[in-house]
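Structural prep section.
Before we set up the soaks we want a predicted structure of the protein with magnesium ion in place, mainly to decide which crystallisation condition to try first. Input record follows.
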Amino acid sequence: MRLHSLTLREIHLKLVTPFETSFDRTTERRILLAEVHVDGVSGWGECTAGEAPFYSPEDTDTCWHILKNYLWPMLKGRELSSAADVWPLLEHARGHNMAKATVETAVWDAEAKLKNIPLWKLIGGERTEIPCGVSIGIKDSLDELCAAVKKELAAGYQRIKIKIKPGKELPQVQRLRQDFPRIKLMVDANSAYRLEDLSLLKQLDAYYLMMIEQPLGWDDLFGHVEIQKNLQTPICLDECIHTYEHAEAAITLGACKIINIKLGRVGGLLQAKRIHDLCQRHNIPVWCGGMLESGIGRAQNIAMSTLPNFSLPGDVTASQRYWHEDVINPEVTVTPHGTIKVLDAPGIGFVPRSDRISSITVRQDHLT
Ligand code: OSB
Ligand code: MG
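Run finished without errors. Recording the tokens verbatim:
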């Protein structure tokens, strides 16, 4: 496979409803898409960086800069035998995993298309249907939160995750357990707490949550070891896990019992697969996190979620939960029993709609 050229596009997409976390409130996404041209086919990837460096250090503009000025020059014109060759070529650049994943995942899509097989089969996926949960943003009132949960359960989703922040956790969880005693429920703090909040977090043990996601700092493995030692509820790490070595340290030290894998955060499919395999060897279940992706990123997430140790419902949901109109055909839909059926078409399976994409593109760069 010869990497011929790379087209970067920035698209703007308005969310159906604003999404609020402990660190930000998003109403419109600025998403960077990569289209890589390899032996006459196009492979597509999506950058999962946020508009600001509040979830992780990268943002849409740092990714554009790093891709254009460092990563593409390391890749252009190269002859590869597989997309698995991309990561080693980029390793000289430290960090910037979301920028790396943008182009790496696009090359995986291209390889699968060249081989005329679905991406999920190329990476060794096994599931033909993936279990889905939803992530519900912070709401102003408990009634509003309950209404949102009710709606998602009616749509079939198998587990509910709510975003929490200091002062907006106990009343929320208490109320949901009162109204929905038997649902699979979990919370995600996005690093909003400190070790001193241990006694508050301990109170959550009474509500048999599936897990508490990333209560402490984005780089605080040590703190999570302390929290996990003192809690019955499993800790799931998201922000803390950027590399295989972080995952190894977290597991060995006992910082978590579950890991959320996001393609962007770990640098693409090759690294996601390595972390997946490591977790499987240690009986640590994983699930696929979401980053408010457009259909391209969703399609990549679906492919990854077919790997066998993605045994818990992920944050991969229907296009229409986020977008009035997605950028792929067909859009992602969810079955009444809360699953996504995996497609058998080549590559990511969903086809990028070039008309729709060009109508919302605000900048474009064709790199050769
Ligand atoms: O922590 O999982 C997170 C969105 C943006 C940044 C971080 C996170 C999230 C979500 C949304 O929870 C998941 C989704 O895309 O549905
Ligand atoms: Mg999270």
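Observations: The first strand starts at residue 3 and ends at 20.
Flagged for discussion at group meeting.
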